[in-house]
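re: ur question from yesterday

yeah so i grabbed the chain u mentioned. its 79 aa long if i counted rite. heres the sequnce exactly as i have it in my notes:
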Amino acid sequence: MKTGRDASRAAVTLDIHGKNGAIYPVEYSLVLKDDVWKLRNVVINGINIGLQFKSQFGFYMQKHRNDIDSVIEAWRVDG
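ran it thru and got these structure tokens back, copy pasting raw so excuse formatting
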């Protein structure tokens, strides 16, 4: 785990080996809150899961005119 200058943030990198021999790099970003490490983001094989979620959420917010209850219901139905 790398913490760098800010001891309240860390990154963990690893490689996942597929059965077909492919290697998938994964990076976990963590933040220390209230003495507990919490997951902040995951990047899998170059795909930023946090940005994907943000993009999808933004799409639903726009589609449902910023009505969070409609967004949650649509996510449940579509997801």
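noticed a couple things. The longest helix spans residues 49-63. also The beta strands are 9-17, 23-33, 36-44, 47-48.
anyway ttyl
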